[in-house]
User: Fold this.
Amino acid sequence: MIGPHRVEGYAIVSADGMIADGNGVMPQSIRNDADQRFLQSELDRAAVIVHGRHSYEGGPRAARRKRLVLTRATPSIAPDPSHSNALLWNPAGATPEEAIAKLGVRGGPIAVIGGTEVFGLFLPLYDTFHLTRASNAKIPGGRPLFPQVGPHATPEDVLANHGLRPAPRRDVDANAGITLTTWQR
Ligand SMILES: NC(=O)c1ccc[n+]([C@@H]2O[C@H](COP(=O)([O-])OP(=O)(O)OC[C@H]3O[C@@H](n4cnc5c(N)ncnc54)[C@H](OP(=O)(O)O)[C@@H]3O)[C@@H](O)[C@H]2O)c1
Assistant:
């Protein structure tokens, strides 16, 4: 939680736990329409979207959503010149509570959508993490879901080590090998 706000994470990862390739590009092999529909409807019920400067969910409703964009280009909190509903936020200079208050948001869930460092920063705070897996995709040398993911730790290991527990896995798109596991604190 952050104050009264639930904190929920959303990611789609390859079988080897990656969210993008080594160049920071999300490959087609982990893009899926059913997962996108799930993500977009979840983000519609979020009060605030949080992500790093290289991430953005896109879609026709994205501009309407209140958001915090992490960057070290500002010392604390500043207007985002490219999105009127967004603020630039450096967690080294302002708390999450301060950033959310500055957006004028008083209640509702916070949706964290990446990338790697941002997903890692919120590990102590997630109430829920929605982990979608593209089981047919591998991204050697890619960007991991969390900084800790690698040869000795899977995304599931990291979530379990931070006190989250999985609900039963369900199919999002069985033909494409896309599954969703919701982890709860
Ligand atoms: N598969 C998925 O679910 C998923 C999810 C998210 C993203 N992605 C993909 O992953 C790729 C980008 O990921 P990424 O990890 O490179 O980028 P990212 O987190 O979106 O952006 C990184 C930038 O965010 C800022 N930042 C990150 N941590 C910060 C901190 N603690 N304090 C202040 N600023 C911070 C920095 O911006 P400055 O350089 O301005 O300081 C950093 O360069 C894209 O292809 C995206 O589509 C995939």
Summary: The chain has four helices and twelve strands. The pocket of NAP is lined by residues 11-12, 19-20, 24-26, 30, 51-55, 70-73, 90-91, 113-118, 121, 143 (CB under 6 Å).
